[in-house]
Design a protein that fits this description.
This protein has 341 residues and is an all-alpha fold. 74% of the residues lie in helices and 0% in strands. It contains 13 helices and no strands.
Length: 341
Amino acid sequence: MKKKIFNVVQYLFFLGLGIFLLWWRYDKLADVQKQQLFQSLTSARYVLILPAMAMLLLSHFSRALRWKLLMAPLGYRPSTINCFFAVMIGYLFNLLFPRLGEVMKCTTLGKYEKLAADKLVGTIIAERAFDFLCLIIVFAITILIQIDTIGAYASAKLKSLFHDSEGNFKVRTLLIILGALLFLILLVRFLYRRHIKSNFLIRVNAILQSVWAGLTSFRYIKNKALFIGHTVFIWSMYLMSVRVGFYAMDSVSQLGIKPSFSILTFGSLAMIPTPGGIGTYQATIQELMPLYGIDEVYGYGYGWLLWIAQTLIVIVAGFLCLAFLPLINRKHHALPPAHPE
């Protein structure tokens, strides 16, 4: 009886924490932003956003299956449910503190499957490398299929990365970055050679070797086609969730696949500067929509609609996974976890 009460209290706690997180994000908006948000969202058909949310959830599940493929060459065979729960918990913590999610993803799975977390870090890096390659491919497709519409916008965004407000190339900034990197490399090389036999460096070497084993695990995947298939499926679900989401708002329902590519491309980049893309994601879509004849207010509203769908999936599923992970693992696995030979 006490255990059931504890489980109910635990569930209510995580649910309340999720609701607080949503309120806290909303409270950070300016009054003008709140008015724009209500104006564009009051007429939205929210039931039509559910298929988009289902696609996002499927992409997260596919990501868990792809992660398992990367772990197989290391001799690890974790359960699918634990991999999926770890993925969702990672997304949840990324909303709170950027990049903390990757750490929680590895430590969570490592704890319940008794796996080496440092090797899991290498698989995460490998995943990110493939996702970055996919983003480049999607970016190229976006430009190629609508060079007249999006070309100038993309050029301006890329130019802003390397030029100041007056249009001058940021030579000084680039030289400072390169100089700092060179100094850091030389410093690390000097310290490494001087203290190569220290216990600390021996431990660091061991960790780096474990990370490298995870990073290069793709080379030893038996079914590389399945890995690539999961990768294509993940990004296809991202794209189609945007496309299907258009039907939820009359003001953008006429848009097709080309604007979907633009939102996927630049929306993915907008997720980087702030936790969960709060603010930057909505502003980016607001800038994109006039290129397709959509008023900025409705573009801003649609940006919020998509962001809410993405974030709500992460918060609800993430907290549910966090709450139920200990429950489904209260019994030891029938088979002991596999370890690398």
